[in-house]
Amino acid sequence: MHPDIIAYNEAQLPEDQPICQLLAEQIDLHLSGAESKVWHAHPVWFLEGNPIVGYSRRKSGMNLMFWSGQSFDEPILQPEGKFKAAEIRYGSVEEINSGDLQRWLRKGREIQWDYKNIVKRKGVLERII
Fold first, then answer.
1. Which of 6, 88, 92, 118 falls 20 to 30 Å from 124 in CA-CA distance?
2. Is pLDDT of 120 > 90?
């Protein structure tokens, strides 16, 4: 696990630390080959420079976001923002369904919109996988 992600997790509220730890471990395990780092102050995993998944603290819980998640056809994931991102929020580690998480991570690898070139394309997203 990237040292900056470990530091991020350890800096969270005691009740959020187990959520962060489990998410980071599962993402590292099931998104092998991904680059991970703290990006815009939150842990994010990238494939070939394209953001795939990340998490952050929100008022209503820990937020797990998939940049291309609206294309996953997963009703549990809620649309986020004006592009293709989708999210789920967790209030406790017991709420995390490992089967769902593994499936979403697989889809994150298989279904990607090109966020790394969004500025170059002036806000236009193109599907790359």
1. 88
2. no
Rg of the Cα trace of the chain? 14
Spatial separation of the C-alpha atoms in residues 56 and 102, rounded to whole Å: 19
Q: Kindly report the pTM of this predicted structure.
A: 0.89
- Topology at the third CATH level for domain 3-110: Aspartate Aminotransferase, domain 1 (3.90.1150)
In this structure, are residues 108 and 32 in contact, taking their beta carbons and an 8 Å threshold? no
Domain spans, the chain: 3-110
Largest interatomic CA distance in the chain: 41
Residue 63: strand, helix, or coil: strand
